Amino acid sequence: MFHARIIGYRYPTHWHDTWTVLIVDAGAIRYDLDSRHHGAAVETVSILPPGVAHNGYPSERFGRFRKRNLYLNSDFLPDELVGPAVDVSTFQDRQLRTAIGQLHDRLRAPEGLDVEARLALIAERFQQHLRHRAPVAREPEPFIASQLRAYLDAHITGKAALHDAARVLDRSVPHLVRSFTQRYHISPYAYIVGARIDMARKLLLQGQPVASVAVEVGFHDQAHFTRHFRRHVSIPPARYARSGLVLD
């Protein structure tokens, strides 16, 4: 991701090998994308396809802009959507813009499963715009939600990836997320974090050190574990462990 405040500067013509998702927080930007003239301002969302030359400069009205960019792998969207993204690059979609802003906040302390789910839902929304289709979501499936829960339970302390579950269950990631959330009233990411914290509580009360518990239940470091534990339990794990130990 890239955040910038631009005043009186013109980007030269260039291109990226990634999809670029752009939101503007102040001012407005103009850009030429493969000879098509486009613009973006607050409340809009823009997407620039990979391999297409473009420039960028503040609009004449404001003379400046503040923006946030996401650079996403070339497989973020299908190749056939490059042309439509050149023709229509900017959209008025408050829900999509909010989702992208929340993803930027999440990426300051990234959580794999959560980021994966958010990106999949954002990609789905862009596809609807670029294919000129009204949002039509498949009805959530309780049985698929149960199967996803079984997958998550089998990966509580390991690496859980929604795209792996989607391949096994023959469903899209957004559909899995919607089915699971409706069935259990919690996201897959929140479910797996809660299960890890529950497991950690038991290990801490058995006297295991905080650092080893953090790794054993699937967090990548002690600080990461402590942040989540405190959010769920209200106190740090070391204090929780001391409060429950019975000494001979």
Automatic annotation (TrEMBL):
Give the top-rank taxon of the lineage listed in the UniProt record for this protein.
Bacteria
UniProt xrefs under InterPro entries: AraC-bd, AraC_XylS_family_regulators, Homeodomain-like_sf, HTH-like, HTH_AraC, HTH_AraC-typ_CS
Task: Report the residue ranges that make up the HTH araC/xylS-type domain in this protein.
Answer: 146-243
Q: Which PROSITE patterns match?
A: HTH_ARAC_FAMILY_1 (PS00041), HTH_ARAC_FAMILY_2 (PS01124)
Keywords, alphabetical = Activator, DNA-binding, Transcription, Transcription regulation
Database matches in Gene3D superfamilies: Homeodomain-like (1.10.10.60)
Which Pfam family name is an example for this entry? Answer: HTH_18
Q: By what name is this protein known? A: AraC family transcriptional regulator
